[in-house]
Amino acid sequence: MPFSDREILETVRMVELETLDIRTTTLGINLLDCADPNLENTCEKVYTKVLHHARNLVEVADTIGADYGVPIVNKRIAVTPISLIAAASNSPDLVPIARAMDAAAREVGVDYIGGFSSYVHKGFSKADWALFDSIPEALAETERVCASISLASTRAGINMDAVVRFSEVIQATAERTRDTGGLGCAKLVCFCNVVEDNPFVAGAHIGIGEPETVLNVGVSGPGVVRAALAKLGPEADLVAVAETIKRTAFKVTRMGELVGREAAKRLGTTFGIVDVSLAPTPAIGDSVSDILELIGVDVTGAPGTTAALALLTDAVKKGGAMASSRVGGLSGAFIPVSEDEGMIEAVRKGALSLAKLEAMTTVCSVGLDMVAVPGDTPISVLTGIIADQMAIGMVNNKTTAVRIIPVPGKRPGETVEWGGLLGTAIVQDPGQFGAEILHRRGGRVPAPLQSYRN
Predict the structure, then answer these.
(1) Which of 21, 27, 163, 307 could form a disulfide with 71, with the two C-beta atoms 3.0–4.6 Å apart?
(2) CB-CB contact of 63 with 113 (8 Å)
(3) Residue 388: per-residue pLDDT
């Protein structure tokens, strides 16, 4: 479908005045052929293959950005879950693979490489146990490596043994990165109903059904939607609000597919999907919180916030689906607390609590994202928080995730500065009560009745 002159001019305005960008071009690389009984050989194969396929990624992205006048902010790599690659070696220590991934990512110049991952929603293999045990050291020692774990699904239920072990891994990772405010946990996420073509970190990886290589694009644009709603004004009804968001998402998606297809062509790979997610940054005017307040709540977290977020997420998805048959990933609206200046201010005002965030995750694209809690939060409390999010995803047949960061030495209300895209977090109060018995029970939460759909 060709682009009209009007669409092109509107896109130019969005880029120049409304902080529209391509948030990420993520090259997926299948590493299944890197498996080897010798772990050292596996590491060498991983390093070599990533270097071979991604050597031109940054240059191509920068060239396309210059050619089209559209900023491409991040360049990333996603690989096959490492637990699948490492199984052949039977090694209990997978940190060397993380080092190889990090070295390759540094060499090609990308921001992050995702895929230090495993799927354990129904149980553990030996390689899965090894990967869990390796995560704290791997994330402490590397700069660019991200880890993700599938703990639950609507089909499988919730692996509570894995939830408990993941909570322990979170605490250990926070402690290993104490000097940077638990920063390692910002590169660690767990999922229910994991998405296998997600271009956004920390969950980026490619599933076993993906091609040898694939180029996925993540398009953002909170500032564009914010500007469109500001022009619409407060007198319009909610149908008009939804239509405005949908039309805006349509334009953003069209631009994303254009860039994605061109990048894939220049790299000699397959174009996969365009993920149309409103992913905020700490920059003023690039906030999902601002959009919710323009829709009609006094401050994000106030009554009506969940309804406003539901409208926003649905309209973005509909606009994307109208624009492209390649919409995938997560698509919708992210609510990462530390990465959104409006969310940070809402927490500061006392309007946005951990409980309200959980309610909002029932309708957003993912779940609890970049939430800081005190460093001494009991592991049983982390287990309860994660289990709640997994249950929301499981019962509602949607993707949910948890990226929670225990900040060593910090108390509720205190601030931690991570800088850059990760922003600033106000440490939230998880409450005085926990889930100790639930934590100790283990086992599995069975799949819900709606999982039987054949």
Answers:
(1) 21
(2) no
(3) 97
Sign of the torsion angle spanned by Cα atoms 66, 277, 224, 284: negative
Task: For 247-257, write each residue's pLDDT tens digit.
Answer: 999 988 988 99
pTM, two decimals, is 0.93
User: Which pLDDT belongs to residue 17?
Assistant: 41
Residue with tokens 């997600």: 198
d(CA 236, CA 224): 18
Residue 271 DSSP SS3: strand
Q: What is the pLDDT of residues 197-230, one digit of tens each?
A: 999 999 999 999 999 999 999 988 888 899 899 9
CB 89 within 8 A of CB 36: yes
User: What distance in Å separates the CA atoms of residue 28 and residue 215, rounded to the nearest whole number?
Assistant: 6
- Whether the Cβ atoms of residue 382 and residue 406 lie closer than 8 Å to each other: yes
SS3 205: coil
Contact assessment for residue 416 and residue 372, using Cβ atoms and an 8 Å cutoff:
yes
Cβ distance 333 to 300 under 8 Å? no
In which residue are the tokens 């090894």 written? Answer: 130
pLDDT digits (tens, 9 = 90+) for 167-198: 999 999 999 999 999 999 999 999 999 999 99
- The CA distance from 444 to 243, in Å, is 42
Grouping H, G, I as helix, E, B as strand and the rest as coil, residue 66 is helix
CA distance linking residue 75 with residue 68, whole number of Å: 17
